[in-house]
Amino acid sequence: MSIRYLTKSRFKIGFECPTKLFFLDDPAYGNTNVDNSFLKALAEGGFQVGELAKVYHPGGVEVETLDKVEAVKQTNELLKQKNVIIFEAAIQHQNLFIRADVLIKKGDSIEIVEVKAKSYDPHDEDQFYNKTQLKNGVKKLSSSWEPYLIDVAFQCYVVRSAFPSATVSGSLMLADKSATASVDGINQKIFLEKSADGRASARVAAGVTKESLGAPLLICVPVPDEIDVVWGSTYEVADMALPFPELVEFLADTCVNRSFIKPVVGSQCKSCEFRIDQSIKDQGKKSGFEHCWQTAMNLKPADFERQFIFDIWNFRKSADLIESGVLFMDQLSEDDISPSKSSGAAGLSASERQWLQVEKVKAKDTSPFIDMAGLAREFSSWTYPLHFIDFETTMVAIPFHKGRRPYEQIAFQFSHHRVEKDGTIAHVDEYFNRDKGKFPNFDFVRALKRSLEGDCGTIFRYAAHENTVLNQIKEQLLSWDEQIDDRDELVQFIESITSYSKESRKNILGPRCMIDLCDLVKKHFYHPEMRGSNSIKKVLPAILNSSEFLKEKYQKPIYGALGGIRSLNFQDWKWIEVDGSGAVKDPYLRLPPIFSDLDLEEMDSLIMDGSIADGGAAMTAYSRMQFTEMTAAERERVANALLKYCELDTLAMVMIWEYWNHEIEKVLGRGV
C-alpha cells in the first residue's frame, strides 16, 4: 500500500479539524464537497490565474507527472542547477509531501510562491492581520487570510525540512486589485481544457508572452513576517497546545495512520462536509458528522432526527448553548431566544422569526406561517404592473476588457417577468451575452432600462445582489475613460431603481427603488420545510408543497402555451410533478442539464458566498463558455439552458407573489 502523505490540502483540512483526516479519502463515508477540479477551476478562476503566473515567470520548467516518486526525482534533478524556476515542484520530507505552484531557486536560496485566485489591495496596510488585535500590539492573522498564509507556511516548512542548508522564503501571488488591464482579451488567451480522465488544465494560446499581456495583473507579495507568526504560534488541537512543528508532526501521524482523533464538536459542525443527507445515506454512505457527535456527546441514532440549534436562522448563541449541553431546538425555551419586536419595524424581527422556527419544531407543526395583515399592507403600496427581475453575474480574476480591474463585476444575463393588475403573468424580456470576451455591462443596463421604462410599476429583486450589481455598474460608467453617449441617462436610470449612498448622504432611495422580496419573506413568511434558509431555492419547493392553488394551476401544461402564460424559453410546460411520496419535485432539478457531464446541484454547491450562492450554476457555465473552446452548437445549448434557468428564477418570485395573493384573497377577501 502506498504511503498516505500529509499534503498541503490534507494539512489545511487537518488544521481546521484533525478528526476529518479519519473520514477523508474513505469511500465508506459520504462527503458533500464536490470533487471536481474542473468545476472548481471555473468557479474560482484558479487555473487561469495559475497559468498567468507561469507566463509571468518565463523560463520556468513544469514537473507534469502525477506520480509522486517520479515527480520528486525530476524536481531534485532540476534543483541541481544553480538557478532555476520550477512549476509544480514536488518536495518530500519523510511523510510530508507538497507540490509548489512556483519554486524559484537562486544559489542557496529557495522561494516558494503560492498562487491564489484571490484579490489583494497593495494600498491596504496590514491587511493580513486582525486590525483590532494589531492596535493592541498582538500580531494575529486575519481570519480571511489565515488559510492562505498557513498554506504557504506549511510548504516552506516542508522545503526547509527537506533542504536544511537552504535559505527558504515564501510569497503569495495574487490578483492585484489596483491593477488595470492595458490590453483587450487577456482572458481569451488562456483556455481551460478537460482531459479524458476529468482533470482540468490550462493552456496559453500560441505566441503569448509576458510583454503581450500588457501591465501585470498579478502581484507577488513576500510574507516572511506572516510565516514567522505561523511558525511561532501555538495551536489548540485535541486537548493539546502544540507549537507549529509539533502540530505538523501530529497531523502527519494522524493522516498516515488514519487515527480517529476525539472530535471537538460545536456550531462549526453545521457546515461539515461529512454531514450528509438521506439521499447520500441511501447510497450506502456513512455519516462522519454522526460518528463524531455519537462519540463526543453520546447521541443515539434517533437523535439525528431532531433539529440542531445551529440550524436556527441567523442564530448567534448556538456555540454557548452547545457548550452548556443544549443541542436541539426542542430543548430551547423562549428565554433562550428572547424574541422581541424591532422598534417601529413591520413584520417579524430576527428574534421573533428565530422563535417561530423553534416553536414549529417543538410543536411538530409543519404548517406555514403567513402574516396576512402585514403582506396585505405591502400589497396595497405597490403599483401595477409588477416587475420581477433576476441577474446572473460573475467576477473574473482576469479582466475581459482593457481598463478593467481583476474581480470587477460582470453582468451577463437577466430575466424579467411582469404581472398585470388583472393577474396576467408573462415572461416579457431577457438578456444574455453570447459574445466571447465582451464586456457586457453597459449593454446589459441599456437592455434592462428598455425593459422597465415603459411604465412606473413596482420592481422586485430577491436579496441584495441586483442592487449591489447595479451600483457597481454605475461606478464603472462614471470611471470609464472612453466616450459613452448615454452615460448620464444610464446612471440616472440606475439611481432611480436602487438604494445607494452619495457623498455624506447615506441610503438614498430612488423613486422606483426595487423591493427586496427576500426581505418580505423574512418579515412575513416562514415554512418549516425551509429549515431556516431563505434561499429562493428553498422557498419555492416549500410553497409549491403548501399551495393547492399552485399545484392545480401549474400541473397543467399552461406555461409557454397558446392562451396560457407567455414564456420566452418554454413551450407547453408543466411545472408540477410529484414523487412517489406525493411531494412536489424541485422545479430546478427538472431543468435540462447545462452540460451533459456536469450536475446542476454540484455546480450550485461550488459558490458559497452568501447572496450569489444560488447563481453558482450560471456563473460556472458562463465561465466555461468564456474560458473553454466550444463549438457553436455547444455554446448555443449552454445559452439556451441558462436562459431557462434564469427564467425560472423570476417565475419563482412570481409564484411566491401568487401564493401570497391567493392566501390573502382567501382569508381577507381581497387580493390583487
Q: Any key phrases for this structure?
A:
672 residues, alpha+beta, six-stranded mixed β-sheet, five-stranded mixed β-sheet, 17% strand, globular
Task: Tell me the number of strands.
Answer: 19
Strand arrangement, major sheet: 1-2-3-4-5-8
Largest sheet: 6 strands, mixed
User: Portion of residues in helices?
Assistant: 25-40%
Distance between the termini: 69 Å
- Gyration radius (Cα, Å) is 27 Å
What is the mean pLDDT? Answer: 90
Structural class: alpha+beta
Any low-confidence stretches, pLDDT <50, length ≥5? 605-614
Number of helical elements: 24
- The rough form would be described as globular
| Share of residues in strands | 15-25%
Question: What would you note in describing this structure?
Answer:
The protein is of the alpha+beta class and 672 residues long. Among the domains are: 36-222, no CATH class; 366-468 and 515-672, no CATH class. The strands form 6 sheets. Strands 1-2-3-4-5-8 form a 6-stranded mixed sheet. A 5-stranded mixed sheet has the order 14-13-12-15-18, sandwiched between helices. α1 (8-16) packs across α9 and α22 (600-606) crosses α23. The chain is globular. The chain starts with 7 loop residues before the first helix and ends with a helix.
In short:
The protein has about 675 residues and is α+β, with helices and mostly antiparallel strands.
Write the layout of secondary structure elements.
Blueprint: H1 8-16, H2 20-23, H3 37-44, H4 46-55, E1 61-62, H5 68-78, E2 83-93, E3 96-106, E4 109-120, H6 131-135, H7 146-162, E5 167-176, E6 190-194, E7 200-204, E8 218-222, H8 224-232, E9 234-237, E10 240-243, H9 244-257, H10 278-281, H11 288-297, H12 318-323, H13 334-337, H14 350-362, E11 369-370, H15 372-380, E12 386-395, E13 409-419, E14 425-432, H16 441-452, E15 459-461, H17 465-479, H18 487-497, E16 499-502, E17 505-509, E18 515-516, H19 517-524, E19 525-526, H20 536-546, H21 548-554, H22 600-606, H23 616-627, H24 632-668
Parallel strand pairs: 1-2, 4-5, 12-15, 15-18
Antiparallel strand pairs: 2-3, 3-4, 5-8, 6-7, 9-10, 11-19, 12-13, 13-14, 16-17
Helix pairs in contact: 1-7, 1-9, 7-8, 15-24, 17-18, 20-24, 22-23, 23-24
